[in-house]
């Protein structure tokens, strides 16, 4: 197996000047290519913080994180922004689509930032919208789409840059059961057929049931790390 994420002894500490609070406390974590992993735990357990550290959205106070052998912990802010753009896809609970852009333009925007030429961008967008089943909604603005459709567009945007892996923070939290299962079907299929690595932060049992690996955090520490046979609907 190919290790793509190697987090060694990482901690995130708040209130360091008086009584320190460890949001993440000396965590070791290895993620292999093709994993479909759920980070779970009660509110305040540190799962979103861990996701943000892995994604370079926040910086660890202790330890190191390497992605495909590149150590991101000490990168400058500019280098880290560039690294995220080229290597990591993000799916957020709140969708984070740009409201003035169409669905197609939202997905294409990432590739424009990467400097990908128009012909290749158009081909990639068409393929992605076919994969998420929204070919007929490409020219709709986010306000014209349902929550489930917006989140599917967010998945397409996350995949547009051909990232090393996708980080999804509570991606089904705002969705009804049908929309959530549809979204999970799409991500599961992408994982199975294209070996795209997904890491979820979630409370949602529907996501947990689909995961191949479940990592449980309590008070910033990993208390269990288990492989399971996922329930595929």
Brief rundown of the structure:
With 233 residues, the chain is of the alpha/beta class.
Write the layout of secondary structure elements.
Layout: E1 3-14, E2 21-32, E3 36-40, H1 47-54, E4 62-67, E5 70-71, H2 77-87, E6 88-92, H3 103-114, H4 118-131, H5 147-160, E7 165-169, H6 177-194, E8 197-201, H7 205-210, E9 213-218, E10 221-227
Helix pairs in contact: 3-4, 3-5, 4-5, 5-6
Describe the structure.
It is a single chain. This protein is of the alpha/beta class. It has one domain (3-227): Rossmann fold (3-Layer(aba) Sandwich). 36% of the residues lie in helices and 28% in strands. The protein is built from 7 helices and 10 strands. A 6-stranded mixed beta sheet has the order 6-7-8-3-9-10, sandwiched between helices. A 4-stranded antiparallel beta sheet has the order 2-1-4-5, with helices on one face. Helix 5 (147-160) runs parallel beside helix 6. The longest helix is centred in the C-terminal third of the chain and has 18 residues, at 177-194. The protein starts with a strand and ends in a 6-residue tail after the last strand. The relative contact order is 0.19.
What labels would you give this structure?
233 residues, alpha/beta, Rossmann fold, 6-stranded mixed sheet, 4-stranded antiparallel sheet, 7 helices, 36% helix, 28% strand
């Amino acid at each position: 197996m190919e290790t793509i994420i190697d987090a060694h002894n990482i901690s995130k500490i708040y209130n360091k000047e008086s009584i320190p609070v460890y949001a993440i406390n000396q965590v070791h974590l290895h993620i292999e290519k093709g994993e479909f992993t759920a980070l779970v735990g009660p509110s305040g357990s540190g799962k979103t913080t861990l996701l943000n550290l892995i994604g370079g959205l926040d910086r660890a106070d202790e330890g190191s994180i390497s992605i495909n052998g590149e150590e991101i912990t000490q990168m400058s802010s500019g280098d880290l922004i560039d690294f995220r753009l080229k290597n990591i896809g993000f799916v957020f609970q709140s969708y984070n689509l740009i409201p003035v852009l169409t669905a197609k333009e939202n997905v294409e925007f990432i590739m424009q930032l990467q400097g990908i030429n128009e012909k290749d961008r158009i081909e990639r967008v068409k393929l992605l919208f076919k994969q998420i089943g929204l070919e007929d909604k490409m020219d709709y603005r986010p306000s014209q789409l349902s929550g489930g459709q917006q989140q599917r567009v967010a998945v397409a945007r996350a995949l547009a840059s051909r990232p090393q892996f996708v980080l999804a923070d509570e991606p089904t939290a705002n969705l009804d059961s049908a929309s959530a299962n549809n979204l999970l079907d799409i991500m599961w299929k992408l994982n199975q057929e294209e070996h795209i690595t997904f890491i979820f932060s979630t409370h949602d049992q529907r996501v947990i049931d689909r995961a191949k690996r479940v990592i449980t955090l309590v008070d910033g520490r990993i208390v269990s790390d288990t492989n399971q046979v996922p329930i595929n609907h």
